[in-house]
Records
---
Amino acid sequence: MRGVTHARGAVCAVAVALAAAGCGGGGSSSGTGAAVLSSSWGDPQNPLEPANTNEVQGGKVLDMIFRGLKKYDPRTGKATDMLAESIRTEDSRNFTIKVKDGWTFSNGEKVTARSFVDAWNYGASLRNRQKNALFFGYIDGYDKVHPARGEQTADTLSGLKVVDDRTFTVRLGQKFSTFPDTLGYAAFAPLPRAFFTDHAAWLKKPVGNGPYAIQSYMKGSQMSLRKWDGYPGPDKARNGGVDLKVYTDNNTAYTDLMAGNLDLVDDVPAAQLKNVRSDLGDRYINTPAGIIQTFAFPYYDKAWNRPGMEKVRTGLSMAINREQITETIFDRTRTPATDWTSPVLGTDGGFKPGLCGRACEYHPEQARKLIKEGGGIPGGQVRITYNADTGSHKEWVDAVCNSINNALGNGKACVGNPVGTFADFRNRIGRHKMSGPFRAGWQMDYPLIQNFLQPLYYTDASSNDGKWSDADFDRLVDRANAETDRAKAVTLFQRAEEVVRDNMAAIPLWYQNGSAGYSERLSDVALNPFSVPVYNEIKVS
């Protein structure tokens, strides 16, 4: 999900101007004397409002400065209680939530039940145009606060009630048995009063309740976070802070790591994978993650949404030689996708290898036949849009296009369409300006099969960037969410996934491992199941 290059001197000059502590590899320290590490990063698409951040770079910061009712275990991904003292329900529809005592925001304000209720009401409101609003869609009153059409007729969700300083209740519009497991997602984070009383100031320097506090941020250069000594949680930072340095080319970040100018690269570029083991030895991390890469389609473009186009999309999928591409480009850090979820879920959690069937295998002759039967590629050429700044996307997009061109016997059937930066890329998607397929990698928000399906393919869902819609899929998802038996719920979700397959709503490409490399200054470096560094556990020598 995640150019211009930054020399070390330029970045350090900015850091000095911001009173941030030094540069990577230089033994920098926080105000309390603890060492600070530096890590590669990219500017987030939007200001860091929890309910308005649904991409990886912003999510990394939210995970450092906020803690919610639940937290996902950095090794297993299991949802465990953090600020929740208890979450009780007798019917999977009405929940009573009690917040632990003793928690505050980094500005000293106490975290209360109202901190959550006010934040959720803000996130759900149509007026606030939050990208993650639909995460609150199961709470009673959402249709009044965020109607599909027209003006909102209520300011707050009727399903949220503050009982006392530490207790609130949630009433859902239907049964949702795994609702508590979703509450570790950043959209459900609490917010301090300062967020509402001086919103502009808060956006410039967000205040949270996590193990780190933001010290400074200069867009395009660096965000400096420092350990918050008053953090009451069990997962306190073991370092003095993190300087997140903006790179528009992760090859440059890797070069800086090797030169001793950067401590941590959390996305090793494809061009370096052949050398990374010899370069870094056991300081190279390659571990499974809840990430799948796909191609999405602009269903708001009638050319890609006319009858028969499911055959064209399936044909394009069958023209992609996933085995060859993952072997030659990604050197064992990707695995060809055979469904629309992730192996990290396990088969009990909903991963069903082979669900895609032949449609995700390389069959060039069948690909040509299906594309012809479906009426051909709109405009005669597939233009795959991707961001060119990070992720080494050019290499694999070019490889995919070469595979499609070879399968179709047409050297111009597919071309890459690069966009300069990730932020520009996401803005074009948000404005529905795509005219063909575009890369749509998905990093899970929480480890449930529901999260790989509903946010991406449910009608008007928060991350349904292509605006695909299917009534059968929606009905199956609704039934699965209401099912209290987890195994039965998984089966219903897989039936919904079959609807995605039969329409080839998006083309699954490969499951992605998390990869990272780090300097000799660091120890206890690990990636969580979301492929994000567990920053608070890193030690700096």
Note: Residues 1-27 have pLDDT under 50 and may be disordered.
---
Amino acid sequence: MLDTPSNRPALPAEIARRRTFAIISHPDAGKTTLTEKFLLFGGAIQMAGQVRAKGEARRTRSDFMAMEKDRGISVSASAMSFDFMNKGTNFRFNLVDTPGHSDFSEDTYRTLTAVDAAVMVIDGAKGVESQTQKLFEVCRMRDLPILTFCNKMDRESRDVFEIIDEIQENLAIDVTPASWPIGVGRDFIGCYDILRDRLELMDRADRNKVAESIAIEGLDDPKLAEHVPAALLEKLREDLEMVRELMPPLDASLMAEGSLTPIWFGSAINSFGVKELMDGIATYGPEPQIQSAEPRQILPEEPKVSGFVFKVQANMDPKHRDRVAFVRLASGHFTRGMKLTHVRSKKTMSVTNPVMFLAADRELAEEAWAGDIIGIPNHGQLRIGDTLTEGEAIRVSGIPSFAPELLQGVRAGDPMKSKHLEKALMQFAEEGAAKVFKPAIGSGFVVGVVGQLQFEVLASRIELEYGLPVRFEQSQFTSARWVNGDRQAVDKFTEANKQHIAHDHDGDIVYLTRLQWDIDRVDRDYPDVRLTATKEMMV
């Protein structure tokens, strides 16, 4: 967290009731299913779709690309807003569902710059997996508070203490159980809510039903025996005694600084444990936080509106070739029709048709507050990393762009359509879906991505959205680095290495390499030139 002035006033009620968070996990841990259930409990949808279900139930609301529906994976981060009632307060949840597949990690990294907390979903059978670990590292870099949900407890899963140990060891974070599972796999009947001393029972028959909750007075309450078989009850009492001896209590300040995570257990597909997790987000999740920016930080309670673009999605509505910039509001109270300054170009924009998202449905946003995420349809003026303000020249910092790990050449199936191809590639580059490099020598483009699956997604989207079949082919280059340094040194370097030089879609100079040896040679021969694997998305 950033240094917070201790004498800050309390946030205005409208801002304080907002909770903006992302869901992170390894593919297949049940993240999209959990998102669906959040919408269900928020009253936003009547029936939750499951990623692997049949027929009508299959249409999950948070996956809108054709490929996402076909493969049952999420490839682009989607944002959703909905209300959730907790203890008489109506909270506004802004939830960003991120792609779990490692091939789309850059989209996820950037998304995490726009949220105040993360919900980490872990599969009860598999524990902490590689992608969870990578995403967790990004949360760690940003000191994001984390709430953990251990999913699929109704299937055969590992010992609970073992799962907790693994989280503590692999992720170096303290864990405190907020609930405790009773039984496992077929014998799983529900959870004991440690925070409120309640028994939560799962109904396997109706997957869209909120679990039955029974208030009890601690573990010695005779009512427990009426609902929990004797063997399971004995194990529950033993386990909880160990938990109280060995594990730290839930301390909100440690959670806020990202060193302690509360863990809930449940089964998202059976709607079990989800409501308790949502109560936890409302109670312990952070309010909208201070944003780091240049030349000063932005406080959410400032009256003037400011926000930044963390994602651009092209062709959400293929009929209209539209591009929507996802903007996280950092401060103020935004109303439709406002004129905002686009800091990079110093031009004023009238924001007349901003939208709020409920998965694939969107509606006009009449107003929004700090912490909210709105979509601004535009024709290419807004790029990732742009800041919008009411006039002040301030730029939100810390939105990264990473060097791609795979490079390929690309050609249009029809050579006459190379101009169309250039337009499509630039669109995807601005969206952040790929890096597009134009080599200084020769024609054609080199496309860079983080994972192989992205090439398939790009080819499928270029064909679907532009009617342009393309083929990707091997490139002689294996990686790319941005070139920085003194103007004269950079000019001298580019002149001598023309066959390796390209420009990205922002016009920045890029050095395309074949081997690590190329990079070492530059370090040795050009001490005044720096090659970097990331660049900040600011102009």
Note: The CA atoms of residues 486 and 528 lie 7 Å apart.
